[in-house]
């Protein structure tokens, strides 16, 4: 009976000793360093393999994107290049000028040369001092049914220039001189007409008058050649009127009259120089009816002269 309490005491002591070993604050003894088992080795091995795989995946993922962006840049440049080309091509298409060969006139009126005059001629109706080329103005361009023969109407002229003026001398064969009109109507009597296109190359193919085309009339004299002379500008119509700065002189003989006149370049708004070309024609009107003021016939230096169409005129070239 006395053993039982002793046994219980021993059991109780053993129980609390075991319980003290698992309470918080107690740490089990461990070996150092720990020895990795097979499972941890496999984990370390997987980590070593996965790390470069992730890096390579990232590089491969972004590399094509960068290439694609760089590729897009030349594409934009190509579009801009095409745009610039398309912009300038039409300009080159619409700005060519016609090619002119002076030795082969493109206008049927031909090319007349005006020689530079070191000494300006005396405007007195006398042709004696003129040495420049003589040109004919014998094409009947109006009133052919009224024209009889060369004695009825025929003309020749000479022309020259200097820095200040254009000089013209005209000899007209006319068996009857009639001029009873002045101003805008002077063409209804015996008279001379000069046509000048001062922007020949600018509107070479324009078959209509414009502001750079001039029509100037010269009256050798009222009632008789050598009487009261007059110069009248018909066109451009907005500046039409008598031109007092045109110097005129005329001389009459049996069956013909001679006229000299000089025109200031300022009338045409021109600064002359050797090599310049102008549209040009000299024409002569005739009236043989002293009782009626009417233009009966006209002869011209241009075979198909038509006032309203400058392409039917000839060409004038200034030379030294």
Short note summarizing the structure:
This protein has 320 residues and is α+β, with helices and mostly antiparallel strands. The chain has helices spanning 3-20, 38-94; strands at 111-116, 135-136, 139-142, 154-161, 165-173, 191-197, 213-219, 230-235, 241-242, 247-253, 256-264, 277-286, 297-300, 314-319. It folds into 2 domains: 38-93; 111-319, Immunoglobulin-like.
How would you describe what is shown here?
- The chain is an alpha+beta fold and 320 residues long.
- The chain has 2 helices and 14 strands, in the order ααββββββββββββββ.
- The protein folds into 2 domains: 38-93; 111-319, Immunoglobulin-like, CATH 2.60.40.
- Strands 1, 2, 3, 4, 5, 6, 7, 8, 9, 10, 11, 12, 13 and 14 form a 14-stranded mixed sheet that branches.
- It is globular, with a radius of gyration of 54 Å.
């Amino acid at each position: 009976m006395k053993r039982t309490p002793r046994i219980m005491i021993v059991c109780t002591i053993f129980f609390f000793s075991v319980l003290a070993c698992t309470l918080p604050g107690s740490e089990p003894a461990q070996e150092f360093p720990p020895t990795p088992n097979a499972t941890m080795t496999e984990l370390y091995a997987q980590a070593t393999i996965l790390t470069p795989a992730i890096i390579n995946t990232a590089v491969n993922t972004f590399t094509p994107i960068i290439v694609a962006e760089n590729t897009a840049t030349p594409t934009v440049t190509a579009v801009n290049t095409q745009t610039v080309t398309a912009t300038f091509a039409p300009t080159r298409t619409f700005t060519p000028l016609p090619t002119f060969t002076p030795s082969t006139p493109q206008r049927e009126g031909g090319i007349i040369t005006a020689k530079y005059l070191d000494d300006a001629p005396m405007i007195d109706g006398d042709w004696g001092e003129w040495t420049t080329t003589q040109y004919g103005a014998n094409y009947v361009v109006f009133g052919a049914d009224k024209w009889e023969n060369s004695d009825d109407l025929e003309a020749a002229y000479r022309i020259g220039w200097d820095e200040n003026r254009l000089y013209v001398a005209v000899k007209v064969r006319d068996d009857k001189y009639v001029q009873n009109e002045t101003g805008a109507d002077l063409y209804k009597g015996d008279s001379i007409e000069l046509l000048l296109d001062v922007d020949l190359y600018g509107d070479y193919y324009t078959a209509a008058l414009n502001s750079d085309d001039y029509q100037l009339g010269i009256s050798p004299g009222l009632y008789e050649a050598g009487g009261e002379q007059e110069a009248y500008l018909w066109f451009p119509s907005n500046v039409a009127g008598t031109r007092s700065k045109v110097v005129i002189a005329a001389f009459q003989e049996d069956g013909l009259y001679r006229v000299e006149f000089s025109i200031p370049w300022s009338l045409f708004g021109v600064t002359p120089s050797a090599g310049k070309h102008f549209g040009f024609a000299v024409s002569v009107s005739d009236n043989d009816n002293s009782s009626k003021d009417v233009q009966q016939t006209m002869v011209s230096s241009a075979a198909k002269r038509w006032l309203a169409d400058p392409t039917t005129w000839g060409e004038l070239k200034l030379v030294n």
